[in-house]
Amino acid sequence: MSAISSNSGKIEEMDSAVLRFAGDSGDGMQLVGDLFTKTSAISGENVATLPDFPAEIRAPSDTVSGVSAFQVCLGGIEIHTPGDQVDVLLAMNPAALKVNLKWVKKNGTVIVNEDAFQPRSLEKAGYSSTPLQGSELESYKVLKVSMTKLTKSALEGSPLGLKQIDRCKNFFALGLIYRLFNQSKEYTARWLQKKFQNQQDLLAANLKALETGWSFGETSGLFPSTYSIRRKQRTRRPGTYRNISGNTAAAMGLLAASNRSGLPLFLGSYPITPATDILHELIKHKQRATVFQAEDEIAAIGSALGAAYGGALAATTTSGPGFSLKSEFINLAVMVELPLLIVDVQRAGPSTGLPTKTEQADLFQALWGRHGESPVVVLAARSPAECFDVMLEAARIALHYMTPVIVLSDGYLGNGSEVWRVPSMEEIPEIKVAYRKDAEGFFPYARNPETLARPWAIPGTPHLEHRIGGLEKEDKTGAVSHSPENHEKMVQLRAEKVARVAREIPPLKLHGAPNAELLVVGWGSTTGVIRQVVERMSERGVPVASVHLRHLNPLPSDLGPILKRFRKVLVAENNLGQLWYRLRAEYLLDSERLNKVQGLPFKAEEIETKIKSVLGV
Amino acid sequence: MATEERPAMENAMGKLTRKDFLGSLEPKWCLGCGCYGIFKALTGVFPSTGVERERFAIVSGIGCSSRLPYYTNTYGFHTIHGRAPAVAMGLKLANPELSVWIITGDGDALSIGGNHFIHLMRRNPDIKVILFNNQIYGLTKGQASPTTAVGTRTKTTPGGSVESPMQPLAMAIAAGATFAARATDTDGEMLTEIFTAAARHKGVAFVEVLLNCVIFNDGAFGMFTNKASRDEHTIRLKHGAPLLFGAARDKAIRLRQLKPEVARINPGAPVPDDIAIHDVGNPDSSFAYLLSQMGHAGQPLPLGIFRQVQAPVYGEADAAARSSGSPSIEIEKVLCGPNAWTEGADGKIHPLSTR
Predict the structure, then answer these.
(1) For chain A, which terminus, N or C, has the lower number of CB atoms within 10 Å?
(2) pLDDT tens digits for B98-138?
(3) Parallel, antiparallel, or unpaired for β A239-245 and B341-343?
(4) What is the pLDDT at residue A11?
(5) Which of helix, strand or coil describes residue B322?
(6) Which domains are present in chain B?
(7) Beta-strand (E) ranges in chain B?
(8) Contact A436, A456 (CB under 8 A)
(9) Domain coordinates of chain A in residue numbers?
(10) Are B83 and A298 in contact (CB < 8 Å)?
(11) pLDDT at B351
(12) B10 touches chain A (CB under 8 A)
């Protein structure tokens, strides 16, 4: 980046920076945010992103309910969260400013499209007078840019209509931001060339807008100084990298698990926010996966269970409301003991709740939300990229133990992204699976003495014809049995089988100061922010430790001893205390809790404040 | 139970017989239940199809009929209420070589599983569906079902049912079923003929069987099954033949402005030109739909194959794409997506060439 010269004076170096792109739903903020992120990642920075968009596709224009935002934190250090406080806000209209100003740090930079601050738009956003004059923005560096007009005049002579020309202003803004961060436009230009290869007018216009935004930043004297990200040390080992969202990583994990197990992949799914992107991704790989868009959530999991019966690596993907509908089929999977992956990309509930907002409140349902004694393995991904590893592990457990496995992701992980080192297949251990073929001594419910798994005898196999179903099974033979003693035995066998999965769990890792007085416990997507806080506080002389659970059922066998080592334990999660409750029940643990259910991930500051109050410092 | 059952031995002629398809469990339906007749015909048809026994998979829901897999020595999956079509879809897509049969009932397929039923019909997978319609909930002991006739007194309709009953064939045909047929439990010959045709059909094959529930709805179809009345109240559909009925073959169906009506004809004379001719292969399903509406108000109830047409089979194109060889793109490239880059030991970054 140092190769890029600047006319506009000094370059400020930063360890990390947080940007937020905000505009109307149709303004293309998710797109430019994503392109900026990929540019940063490809030029060597670490990134973490937080798309924050409304549930409506196109809410009435210029209203606060239609504001769509995309936040990214980039840095030359390890980045665990998209950041608490925004350094640079881009606001394309008054409503975007109104909604997002609260995220901006004091003295932060606010870049507005001043052309959009017209009386009607101001009124729709709820401003009685323009905030560009007056005291409201006093404590920020406000840069007013006439983006609409500058884009329009740059595109004079373009054959595009006025509306299409107006739509190019997001690329003007992106060019401007690239200039501010001394980033290259090259990746974006290539992306545009590919996207609009058959629409030369659109290509030319958007490229021109991008270029014009950049040049305006270069020549207007708008920026008193520009920024560059300092690289303290190399945080990435040699290899192949990409930027990846949690949902894409989950899809890739399924493809990799299919490759490593040698099993055909089947996905049965029904569209639901924020899980649909997994379906979108897998449908692109028709040679590698059978993807069935079912008529409803129940049919989606039913088809997956049918595919598992037929010998496939089978998965279903959903979010809260769909997860509720799948309960009965999860129970059937428990009874017939077939491998099945159920991915719940959690969103804020109950009911339709906040469809585009994140939450971790489906833990109880994953653990216990079924009738009868119904033990299921439950895993949770801790970062977007880790969705890949968790899917692989879930597949391994499901296939080795012949059990359904629930994978909890959430909207924050599913839509958020980070840089991911792409593994080669040799780095991923093979998943050994063998269908039962031998009729000698075959019993449908005879068990592997180690794993307690029953044999997988798939239809089409000669001499192994047998029946399975939801009625209680007789031990070993699998015949229907109503015997009281047999039922109790089978309930315990199913519980024991899931409990034995704990043998697979690697030792827990502690972060921060292992000898601290306080241990912060998190699970799933809170990992990044908790770890960041704990490590930063420990470095600054307030020792705190943290542990982050991927395995929610069974729990890791070393968790109990670890919890006992600390005088105080704080459980932080985006629900009202579901893991807190589970740990209390399991270990008679007296612990503190920090809960947030705003449809948003924790801010580092919120966790730090709570830790200080627990420690009394 | 598998090992206690007869091994899959072929008889001296090298061919499977009905006995090879009987499980070791004796069926536990009520004495006189219509399920027995259907079970007998079905297990008789299986060996005649030429399909190996291990390639049969019977998927059922919940209800009296759905116990059938337990009595059949094939692969069988007794699933949950109404959801057999979902499981069967996944099974067939994952394992296209199987002969997949769904066993369901009127409550199972049309009430709790109504949505799946419609979508199964419209998608046209190569799956066979036998709906045991006894117009009552049997296993829960006698509540009204979606097909219960108006006026029928049940535990949940003590004053007589007031709901308009669902017509399974009409629904299947409207949803796009490429094979649709109806038979009664007492006519083994017709059941055999229809199940055989269903087995041969490429695509979804829907068969409604009217069966008697001796306990909770005895005699509901007596008019259509009793020797004394059946010829006057049913009409046997034959492809290419005029729609004649009556013991004396003196009645026929003709269309008057899209309305079927009963016409008296002279049994000895040539069939008049205005009498409808049955055509199972008509690509337009309107006539099959009209037939499916009959059976009330003095009109006979049609039995036999209503519709049998060819259409693209769900999943076949995708299965062909997958079996055409190994994927054209390596898994590593798939994982990389279009925007990956490499970082060398020197920290230098090189974009991977986009594909």
Answers:
(1) C
(2) 999 999 999 999 999 999 999 999 999 999 999 999 999 99
(3) antiparallel
(4) 93
(5) helix
(6) 2-241+278-317 (3.40.50.970)
(7) 56-60, 75-78, 99-105, 127-133, 179-184, 205-210, 234-236, 244-245, 251-256, 259-264, 301-308, 341-343, 349-351
(8) yes
(9) 11-229, 242-427, 510-615
(10) yes
(11) 80
(12) no
Average confidence (pLDDT) per 10 residues, chain A, 617 residues: 50 95 94 96 92 86 94 94 96 97 96 97 96 94 97 96 96 98 95 95 97 96 92 82 97 98 97 98 95 98 98 98 98 98 98 96 98 98 98 98 98 96 96 97 98 98 98 97 98 98 98 97 97 96 98 98 98 98 97 97 97 97
Structure-block tokens of residue B34:
């219509």
Are domains A11-229 and A510-615 of this chain identical in fold? Answer: no
- pLDDT score of B204: 98
Chain B residues 107-136 within an 8 A CB cutoff of chain A: 115-116, 118-119
A286/B1 CB distance under 8 A: no
Q: Is any Cβ of chain A less than 8 angstroms from the Cβ of B7?
A: yes
**Domain A242-427 CATH assignment equals 3.40.50.970:** yes
Interface predicted TM-score (ipTM) over 0.90: yes
Cβ proximity of A342 and A328 under 8 Å? no
Least CB-CB distance to B352: which of A190, A240, A443? A240
Q: Residue B151 phi/psi, 5° resolution?
A: 95, -15
Tell me which DSSP letter residue A366 carries: H
What angle is formed at CA A528 by the lines to CA A527 and CA A533, rounded to 5 degrees?
Answer: 100
pLDDT of B339 above 90: no
Is the Cβ pair A314, B94 closer than 8 Å? yes
| Identity of the residue in A38, A314, A460 whose CB atom sits nearest the CB atom of B55 | A460
Q: Kindly state the percentage of chain B with pLDDT values over 90.
A: 86
CA distance A291 to A304: 10
Domain A510-615: CATH class, spelled out: alpha beta
What CATH number was assigned to the domain covering residues A11-229?
3.40.920.10
Residue A507: CB atoms within 10 Å: 9
- What's the pLDDT score for residue B15? 87
Across the interface, whether the CB atoms of B86 and A264 are under 8 A apart is answered: no
